[in-house]
Design goal:
Number of helices: 20
Bound molecules: arginine
Largest sheet: 4 strands, antiparallel
Strand order of the largest sheet: 1-2-4-3
Number of strands: 13
Strand content: 5-15%
Radius of gyration: 29 Å
Length: 591
């Protein structure tokens, strides 16, 4: 379906032509004086030059041509030549009824679906997830879902960090603790044990201990570097140990992401890209892109128009070791080979901006991807505490994701108990509800900010049932569900209800806002901006609640009116539920 605003623009354009002017002046926008009108067209002012006429006269010709419009009820000349437009109530009702009957809520899917690989999450094996990983998971998941809704083929890849120094640190630490394990015996040729020599909680303690040690103990650090190197060269015992680390860690990560309602299509790892490195490096050398500089192999990527310095891409260090950059380039080779993507989208901390500038330029320059492949780094800002500094635990440590979620759920639990309208809730149900609402609080709190900006994680505000919060949106959804349930309980059939012309201002406002779903979601996708969906559903929820407070819906005696309202509510419910599904959370049955 065309968006409402496009339909109105087309109508006004036709009127411009009918009045003898070019249709290109007929573009309509939402009114910035909602007290006066719903839409406005400023085209007469722009047309002044071409026709050498007073804009008010042009506008008045166009208004005349709109007199018998079925779409526009009233077009009034205002000020220097604005057209203030009100649309027909019947037309609006028809538009919404069509939207209600459309199983994609009036939004057309993209005409030429693209294959998009979205690289998000990016956890590091054996290190517990912390709040820094939260944003990538939340934003990435929502963009993936948004892309799917719009019809693109979205492939979400977690891109596990499994290849860095952390592996050598863990291996070395285990060796110090359990030196007799066969993994460390270079002469061992038998089968290694199937069972990992550690549990996830041990592993999570091993890494920070080893990491701390490496900062004060030079010898230990060198051992870890050596172990990392030998692992990367394929030392058998280390590979076996690495496999254990992977299994234990990945199972835990999967469970954690599940709690966040985040799901990846691919569980690819940095190590998967390693086999592509030798050929890639050879190609870069053969074609003359890569050259030696102080022993390292580098590719220049700076451009004349650069405002800040863009250092060359280091492909191999002087000891021949590959780097994060090398891995990302080789991952591009692999992705190109396996998926031929039209677009690569990375949802990664904005502090990695330079890394991605280098990687993208190098990939294009050396032809790892065709010229038309789009590469985008959506760099997100930091999640700060109320003190404006990166979010920490009360004692100043790094807050683990699990603990953060548990804390929010507890706050949510207390709020729901406090609020309890229906005293018939049992504890288990409140707990379940707290989890659902808690997740919405966290995700909406994050997504409602522009991704690139830092934001303040404020549990009190995020869990509030009022204001621009996840719980407020869910509260609105639950309110509609409850009205529809009561309507059904009284024998009503929601599916048979039809949307009719509005009878009040608040109803018309709600209808207009509902109709704006199409441009809101389309625009959010074009700009990779989930916060625009949040802004849209917040405005929609406000309209809904305003209408609700002004209207006695279920006790209305005029059946046509009541049925129209129920149909409208049902449509708003579908729009809200679709929107939160795209954002990556859901609503409870009641709260
Ligand atoms: N594991 C990395 C980190 O924790 C993030 C990976 C992002 N994705 C990528 N292709 N570089 O910083």
């Amino acid at each position: 379906m065309n968006s409402l605003i496009d339909v109105i623009s087309a109508e006004v354009s036709a009127a411009f032509e009918k009045a003898g002017y070019s249709g290109k002046y007929g573009k309509v926008t939402e009114s910035n004086r909602p007290d006066l009108c719903e839409f406005q067209c400023n085209g007469a002012m722009a047309a002044k030059k071409e026709y050498n006429k007073i804009p008010r006269d042009i506008a008045s010709d166009v208004a005349g041509a709109l007199l018998d419009s079925k779409i526009i009820d009233n077009a009034e000349v205002a000020g220097p030549g604005f057209l203030n437009i009100k649309i027909s109530n019947d037309f609006l009702a028809d538009y919404l009824q069509n939207m209600n009957e459309d199983d994609h809520l009036g939004v057309d899917k993209v005409k030429n679906p693209k294959t998009v690989i979205i690289d998000y999450g990016g956890p590091n094996v054996a290190k517990p997830l912390h709040v820094g990983h939260l944003r990538s998971a939340i934003i990435g998941e929502s963009i993936k879902r948004l892309g799917r809704f719009m019809g693109d083929k979205m492939i979400g890849d977690v891109h596990l960090g499994d290849w860095g120094l952390q592996m050598g640190l863990i291996i070395s630490e285990i060796q110090e603790r359990q030196p007799d394990l066969p993994y460390f015996d270079p002469d061992f040729e038998g089968e290694y044990p199937e069972e990992a020599p550690f549990t996830i909680s041990e592993l999570e303690e091993i890494y920070p201990t080893a990491s701390g040690k490496s900062k004060v103990d030079e010898e230990f650090k060198n051992k870890a570097l050596q172990a990392t190197h030998e692992l990367q060269l394929g030392r058998r015992g280390y590979i076996a140990l690495w496999n254990h680390i992977m299994n234990v860690s990945v199972n835990d990560l999967k469970a954690n992401y599940k709690k966040l309602n985040v799901e990846f299509d691919l569980w690819k790892k940095e190590s998967d890209a390693q086999p592509y490195i030798p050929d890639m490096v050879q190609m870069m050398k053969d074609k003359g892109y890569a050259y030696e500089d102080n022993g390292a192999l580098i590719v220049d990527v700076k451009e004349d128009t650069d405002k800040k310095e863009v250092p060359p891409c280091i492909i191999l260090k002087s000891d021949g070791a590959s780097l994060y950059t090398t891995t990302d380039l080789a991952t591009i080779v692999e992705r190109e080979k396996l998926f031929k993507p039209d677009k690569l989208l990375y949802v990664v901390d904005k502090r990695q901006e330079m890394h991605f500038i280098q990687v993208f330029r190098c990939a294009k320059k050396t032809g790892l991807v065709p010229e038309n492949v789009e590469m985008q780094h959506l760099g997100f800002g930091t999640m700060n505490g109320k003190d404006g500094k990166p979010f920490k635990t009360r004692d100043g440590g790094v807050m683990r994701l699990e603990n953060l979620i548990a804390e929010i759920n507890e706050q949510m639990y207390n709020k729901i108990v406090e609020n309890k309208a229906g005293a018939d809730f049992d504890k288990a149900e409140i707990e379940e509800t707290s989890k659902i609402v808690g997740l919405a609080a966290i995700k909406y709190g994050d997504l409602s900010n522009q991704a690139t900006k830092d934001y303040i994680f404020d549990p009190d505000r995020f869990t509030s049932f009022e204001g621009n919060t996840g719980p407020y949106i869910l509260y609105t959804i639950v309110r509609i569900k409850s009205i529809l349930e009561r309507f059904k309980a009284a024998g009503g059939n929601v599916e048979e209800c039809r949307i009719k012309a509005p009878v009040s201002e608040s109803e018309k406002s709600l209808m207009l806002q509902t109709a704006a779903f199409n441009p809101a979601i389309t625009n959010a996708y074009e700009e990779t901006a989930p916060h625009k969906i949040c802004a849209y559903i917040y405005a929609l929820s406000n309209e809904l609640n305003h209408f609700y407070h002004e209207t006695k819906i279920l006790s209305e005696e005029d059946e046509t009116k009541k049925s129209s309202w129920i149909a409208l509510l049902n449509l708003v419910l579908k729009v809200l539920e679709q929107s939160i599904d795209v954002l990556g959370f859901e609503a409870p049955e009641r709260m």
